[in-house]
Design goal:
The chain has 15 helices and nine strands. With 348 residues, it is an alpha/beta fold. The strands form two sheets. A seven-stranded parallel beta sheet has the order 1-4-5-6-7-8-9. The chain has a two-stranded antiparallel sheet with strand order 2-3. Strand 5, helix 11 and strand 6 form a beta-alpha-beta unit. Helix 2 runs antiparallel to helix 4, helix 10 runs parallel beside helix 11 and helix 14 runs parallel beside helix 15. The longest helix is centred in the middle third of the chain and has 25 residues. The protein starts with 5 loop residues before the first helix and ends in a 7-residue tail after the last helix.
């Protein structure tokens, strides 16, 4: 275990002396030093695919802030790209695929990428980051969930209403399951390769799970996430984050992950009551709060901590990723507030 093992201990609900803090997208566009490296790389995808530069941007926020974890700098769409769909990013529109899934034969023809071949740049980045961390902090590895990747692959990019992917799911559920099955195998292999390369914690981002109905969420998203949790070769702490999934916490707590990420629409106190001692909770300050002045940020950090209450089992985080135009000083106010206010909640 790294010297600072607060994150792992909190995820396993073991006693600690303060609440750990990290932030989704903590390596990213809000930092001027990140923007410089991205310019050097040429574009976002080239940055992801360059292990040395991915390592550099992973380390940047740790030089500025007292975070308790590094998170691998990568993208959730590396797997569909490695399957041959041709990922690219359009300024102002986000990710797009040159060859989205349009026919059943497209699903039949999808290869399962070998993580140490087609996705080797990710594993190489993990190995470099591990060396750079020098056993000081844990490294979080991650993947998108099968459902979330399927949404991008069928829609061809981001979507407001998920019309294409839901039409496929309702009209041809067997085909949808075939796609999710392949993705589950690919994601499990990918996370196991990250584990073999040295990550200490894994997280599954189910960004679009909240777009499903309760019945469909269980069948088309959560069941596959549960299979991934079961398929991990190494027992490390694991986190499942379903944005918009607050209504299904009880089911999610049974999926085999150690912790659930919460977005800002769910009360963390209520979530703790509902899941009891089954899982730890991660979250859940509204990312927009970082636009407020540092005094307001400090107050709101304190209220999230107090809402969770005494004892272990909480990892402080935003309820989604940080926005690109946030003032870096506001991040510092948030991190320092967690350090200042959380110790009193850990002394029985």
């Amino acid at each position: 275990m790294p010297e600072n093992n607060l994150l792992e201990r909190a995820l396993l609900r073991q006693p600690i002396d303060r609440t750990p803090v990290w932030m989704m997208r903590q390596a990213g566009r809000y930092l001027p030093e990140y923007r410089k490296v991205r310019e050097q790389a040429g574009d976002f995808l080239s940055l992801c695919m360059n292990p040395e530069l991915a390592c550099e941007v992973t380390m940047q926020p740790l030089r500025r802030y007292r975070f308790d974890a590094a998170i691998l700098f990568s993208d959730i769409l590396t797997i569909p790209d490695a399957m041959g769909l041709g990922l690219h990013f359009v300024e102002g529109e986000g990710p797009k695929f040159h060859s989205p899934i349009r026919h059943s034969r497209d699903i039949d023809n999808l290869p399962i990428p070998d993580p140490e071949q087609e996705l080797r740049y990710v594993c190489d980045a993990v190995r470099l980051i591990k060396r750079a961390l020098d056993n000081q902090l844990p490294l979080i590895g991650f993947s998108g969930s099968p459902w979330t990747l399927a949404c991008y692959m069928v829609e061809g990019g981001s979507s407001r209403d998920f019309r294409k992917v839901k039409s496929l799911m309702y009209e041809q559920p067997d085909l949808m399951h075939q796609l999710l099955e392949k993705l589950t195998v690919a994601i499990t292999a990918y996370l196991n390769a990250q584990l073999a390369a040295g990550v200490n914690v894994v997280m599954v981002f189910d960004t679009w799970g909240g777009a499903l109905s309760a019945q469909d969420y269980q069948q088309f998203s959560l069941d596959y996430c549960a299979r991934i949790a079961k398929g991990l070769d190494v027992q490390v702490p694991s986190i499942l984050f379903t944005k918009g999934g607050g209504q299904w916490l009880e089911n999610m707590a049974d999926a085999g992950f150690n912790a659930l990420g919460l977005d800002w629409t769910t009360s963390i106190a209520e979530a703790r009551q509902r899941v009891g001692n089954k899982v730890a909770l991660q979250g859940n300050m509204d990312p927009m709060l970082l636009y407020a002045n540092p005094d307001v940020i400090r107050q709101r950090v304190q209220s999230v901590l107090q809402e969770f209450g005494n004892g272990s089992g909480h990892v402080f985080n935003l309820g989604h990723g940080i926005l690109p135009d946030i003032n870096p000083a506001h991040v510092e106010a948030m991190v320092n507030a967690v350090h200042d206010f959380s110790p009193e909640l850990h002394h029985s």
